[in-house]
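Standup notes
- HV: blocked on the assembly model, inputs below
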Amino acid sequence: MTTIPWLTILMVVPLVGSLLMIFLPRGNARLIKQTALVFALATLVLTIAMGLQFDGQSTAAFQFTESYAWIPAFGISYSVGVDGIGLVLVALAATLVPVVILAGWRDVPDESAKGYFALLLVLDTLMIGVFAATDVFLFYVLFEVMLIPIYFLIGRYGGANRAYAAVKFLIYSLVGGLLMLAALIGLYVVSANELGQGTFDFATLVGLDIDPNTQKVLFLGFFIAFAIKAPLWPFHTWLPDAAKESTPATAVLLIGVLDKVGTFGMIRYLLPIFPAASEFYAPLIIALAVIGIIYGALVALGQTDMKRLFAYSSMSHFGFIALGIFVFTSWGASGSTIYMLAHGLSTAALFLAAGFLMSRSGGSSAIAAYGGVNKKAPILAGFLLFGTMSSLALPGLASFVGEFLVLLGTFARYIAVGVIATIGIVLTAAYALRLYQKVATGPASPAVEGITDLKGREVTALAPIVLLTIVLGVFPAPVFNVVNPAVERTLEIVGVTDPPPVIGVQGGEQ
Amino acid sequence: MNTDMLTAPSVDYMAILPLLIVAGAAVIGVIVETFAPRGARRTIQLFLAFGSLVAAFVALVSEAGLRSLEVEGAIAFDGPGMLLMGLILLASFVAAMLIAERQLDPAGDSFAPRASALPGSRDERELTARGYLQTEVWPLFLFAVLGMMLFVISNNLLMMFISLEVMSLPLYLLAGMARRRRLLSQEAAMKYFILGAFSSAFFLFGSALVYGFTGSVEFAAISDALAAQPGQTYLVIGGVGLISVGLLFKIGAVPFHQWVPDVYQGSPSAVTAFMAATVKVAAFGAILRIFYVAFGGLRWDWEILLWIIAGLTMVVGSIVAVVQTDIKRMIAYSSIAQAGFILMGVASATPEGLGASIFYLTAYAFTTLGIFAVIMIVRDGSGEAGRLSQWAGLGRRSPVVGAAFAIFMLSLAGIPLTSGFIAKFAVFSSALAVDQVIPVIIAVISSVIAAFFYGRVIVIMYFREPESDGATVTVPSAFTTLALAISVAVTVLLGVLPQPVLDLIEQAGVFIR
């Protein structure tokens, strides 16, 4: 128990920033943007300060914990705390918000800047909160409330078809959210029957011995919510529309961070609270994940629109993450966590670089409109190349570490699944390189003719992403030190051990 | 004549003081209408209405601990009854502010200059031209409040029937008093009256059957008689069924909901607000009491019926609301769907279900009042802007009003941190606690359908470009502004910090008999 309420401070700082914006003059867009950036950077600095105090050797499940009664009548408390997995994702959120604020400096006309940047800061608060919550009810509340800023960010500031995309996103998410609510209340009733007093406290719920059949029902409620959020095949159809109609900044936060709540929820809540059901459904979920990997990659291969391509590629990558979680090996789970981080970074690189390109050349996101960018804007093309490399998991980049570990963990348990998933990597390389080839190489297309290269602000926004991707790809040890204890604790609760190393060696050779 | 055989009933006048205050103010209001000079009436009526509501509330709070049967067992002062009466008084207070609004309509207020004048007649045109404003809404309003307060504490079938009529008759009249769109308003009043009279007849017929079987109209005696003769006859089943029809009509449950959209649309919005918020509280209070106290022993028979009606009400209300293009009709269908959710709490037939229903009613009442406050101030040249498409871009032109309406929509949709979410949570958990999984799943599906049209209002307000004949926000007087502020505050506070109200409900306990 620390004396400084780190996580609450992290949540309060951006919220204060967004409230402050209400009082800023609407006309002074520059001041509004600067305020947003200052508060987002302050949150990042505080996150780093907190992260440095994280004790990798600690035996406590959660660190920086706080707990206050909120609605005692329903056993609800405001409880926060992070384990290694939570910390990594909090850090991802805190990193990407200042990046997208800087990158999205000119996303919206000056007169609507106020709402846009205020919503981005609100989202910062909610994202940190959702990864930090240790009360399942608090998690649910933040999970649902997060919809609202995103709904407005897509619906109000997005592209031509934005209202449709926003409503589709909202409805899909609410279906999942309400199913989860029903399961959540079911869990509460189960805890009330067992303990005499219902609770939403995560640690207490993990300790419950829930009847396997009840587990199977409740598991589904949570799983569908997470599978829609993450999105897994066949719950994915909202994502391409939302990604296409969003501004690049919104898309980065939506796909890079918000969707991770789905996979985070699987590893944090599904596995420990419903261990028996997790084992029961694992084959099904692995099947969905593998279908997603291949389907997403194949559809990405056929896309004519950059943003939609990124969306399908993300769906394929979410397949990898879910696969790593449900093969129940420590390699798989650690790999998934690293992959969540790496995918957040590579999504940011791709969407922002593509966004810069689109904003320079009339806004079209059709692949066919572009060509020869590397001749006119070499720095921009360079970042785009980096994004595609990161997406196809080039060795030396963070995504490679994640993808490799996930496959290692998969081969250790199911060789056939590992083989199919590996085909996904080949397809990823195909669509990623094809995209780069069409957009950046060859003769310059008319849309690309007059464009200028990236300026200081844009390079400043992208540089940290590139740097982090490379550093974590070459030296991932600090992240592993933080993540591994949390992963081991989770698998211990599920009651599985890694398969004997002999298969692991075979898996390692692929 | 042997008159000394009849002893006068003992009445504790202090206990029924809240009722007496409202009744007294209503009667004085009628006298004022007759004798006070036209110019002074409004001041006196406002003073009477607000004064009596506040005084009744104070009297109610001062006897909050009272748990007893009064007036020879005809009315029951118990925790839930007290809470519901308090809620009715508070919601009526806010509704009164909306009724008192006079700044919105250029002609004066939103009520017809004389309710008895035929629509479009010379008489009416003359009265309008002379700028007549009437104040007869106030005594009618107070009588309706009195009826509602009695309705939730009635402890026998006759008392319940009388309070049902005291509540309903003024409302039939109020529904027909809109200044604009007179024909629509009169049609609404007529429909409400005819169908309401039918439902009253059903209630009365059911009461007669139950009396025939049990030999009493007292709830406790009915309950005992049912327990003593467990074999049910058609008499009881028929009686309970007919009484249910009468009460379900008042809450607008499917299939007794047809009157709701027409009446909501035609009535003056301030009256709709009053009706939508408080009638629902009163009728649910009566349903809860009669099913829990009088027919508690038959719960295995009526539970299944209520679950089915709850499911139907949620699904039909939500689906039909999707295709509405008029904001008031949409809210009307949404209120039908909401009634289905509250019925889930009733059908749970547990103390948790009772508490969940009361919480839901509290949340729903204030959100609804707020919604109609906004509907009143969003206007075009000819009055309130009813068509949803006219609301396009409203959120951007009037950020405060837009945000308030968005909060109400999110609350009805059950998004966390609003009162609607905690309310849904409470009824869902009361249903799951009695292992009713299927109704909860139906409720989840209805919630998703409902989220679509609540979300669409936000889309229209925020994401669409304004139309040429679009609506604008008329600046209201302090009355409506305050009513709106209270509604927003309650909606958000009950969502973020519901514990005090949950404590209050917990302490209130259950019905006495």
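- HV (later): unblocked. Chain A touches chain B through 33 residues (CB under 8 Å). The CA atoms of residues 222 and 415 of chain A lie 28 Å apart.
- Next: hand off to the docking folks.
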